[in-house]
Structure formats: C-alpha cells, structure tokens
Design brief:
With about 240 residues, the chain is an alpha+beta fold. The protein has a single domain, classed as Sandwich (Jelly Rolls), CATH 2.60.120. It is built from 3 helices and 15 strands. Strand 10 and strand 11 form a beta hairpin. Helix 1 packs antiparallel against helix 3 (about 215-235). The radius of gyration is 22 Å and the shape is globular.
C-alpha cells in the first residue's frame, strides 16, 4: 500500500492537468484606436475582473505573466498618442471577430509587428494553444499575405509559418494552432511586408494559452528520495 501511494504521490508532482484561458480582449471602457491595457491577461485569477473578461478553456492561469510589444523605438512611429506598446484595441468590423488587437506603427522596421510574450513562474510551463487572425475589409482585397507567424523561446523558433494568408473580408478569419510549450514563449505576428494601411489592420483575437506545473529538479529529487525511502520501509516490514 505504501509503495502504491508513493508512486501516485510522485506522479501528482510530475504532472498536473492543464489550466487554460482565452484572451478575448473583452475590455470595458476601452475605446477604438486606444492602446491595449498592458495588464490584460496577466496572471488571470478570475474570468471576470473589473473591466476585463476572458474566455474559459479549462481553468485559470495565475502563474503566467504577459507583455505586449511592437518594437516601436520612436513615439512618432505610432499612430496614436500612447506609443507603449503601440498595440491598439478595436471593437468590430475586422472579419467576423469582435474586440481585437492590432499594431499601430505607421513607419519603421517595427511596422506591422505584434509581439506577445508569455512567461511562466518557476515550476510551471506555458503552452500557446491557438489564436485567430483577420483583417479589415478593403474593396478588391479579399486576402493579404503576411511575412510570418512565429513562436520562439530560448533564442530559437519552436513554431514558424511563412507567407500566411489572412482574410480581409467581412466574415472571415483563420485559426493558427502552434501548440508549443516552454517557460517563456514569444508570439510574433510579422506583417511588415505590407503597406502600413494594410499592416496596421492585421488583427488578433481569441489567444488561448495554458499553464501546467513543472517541478524543479530539486523537487523531483525529493520525490525520488521519498520513493526510495518508502520502498526501503516496505522491505523492512516483510
């Protein structure tokens, strides 16, 4: 009995069910073309918190922090007053999605670039499951092809997709599912191959990510020691 209990205990430390949340960008009191509130999605401990709400996909993510960036280096490159992080919020009119984010740079190498970084606390991992992309409907342009979508960690790409076709229609979007896991993941949407009036109308929504426990090596060593001790005690009782 002790041996069985020890194995179950160790398994509980090594693995845990995923807790997932969805960034739907449902933000009260935000106005169109206003910079994203940079704490939206950060350490989600409730699906409805003040002016923020999120989609449910299995649980909360209090051990995952988030940051938004567009690599803008000069305020004049941003199309609105608040140049940090030059990622803006919009409520409707982009494909069939509502409440989305897009980048607001009108010039420079960061034009058309959105970066979202997810960082897990020590002892945890983050998984970027999926997200939706769409564009503002321009007459005569049903789609546009953006340079790339990547997810990286540790200086390398765990997911990379080039020449991504994004619908620029009233009723369309695409879903991309990287399903990449790590301690820190950076999602980069790169549309800098497009003129700014297209590039700043690539919109992202419904970003789903998960957290799971990942014990540190010292914790795993303690679990192994506990199993060895339990086995030793069991042999002595025979």
């Amino acid at each position: 009995m002790l041996k069985t209990f020890g194995i179950v205990l160790a398994a509980a430390w090594i693995t845990s069910p995923l807790s997932a949340a969805v960034l739907t960008f449902d933000i009260a009191h935000n106005v169109q073309n206003e910079a994203i509130f940079t704490d939206y999605g950060n350490r989600i401990s409730s699906f409805n918190t003040g002016n923020y709400s999120y989609g449910t996909a299995g649980g909360l993510t209090p051990h995952i922090s988030i940051s938004y960036n567009s690599n803008v280096t000069a305020p004049t490159q941003c199309s609105f007053a608040d140049s940090t992080p030059c990622v803006y919020w919009w409520d409707n009119g982009l494909g069939d999605l509502t409440n989305v984010i897009a980048q607001g740079a009108t010039s420079g190498p960061s034009m058309g670039v959105i970066q979202i970084t997810l960082t897990a606390d020590p002892g945890y991992l983050v998984t970027l499951n999926s997200f939706d992309l769409t564009g503002w409907p321009f007459e005569g342009y049903p789609t546009e092809t953006i340079s790339s979508v990547t997810v990286g960690y540790g200086g390398s790409y765990a997911f990379s997709q080039n020449n991504v076709v994004v619908p620029f229609a009233n009723n369309g979007h695409i879903t991309i599912a990287p399903n990449v896991t790590g301690h820190t993941l950076m999602l980069t949407i790169n549309a800098n191959n497009l003129p700014y009036y297209f590039a700043d109308n690539i919109a992202l929504d419904n970003l789903e990510f998960s957290q799971s426990s990942n014990p540190e090596p010292a914790t795993l060593s303690l679990c192994g020691l506990a199993l060895v001790s339990i086995g030793f005690l069991r042999r002595r009782r025979r």
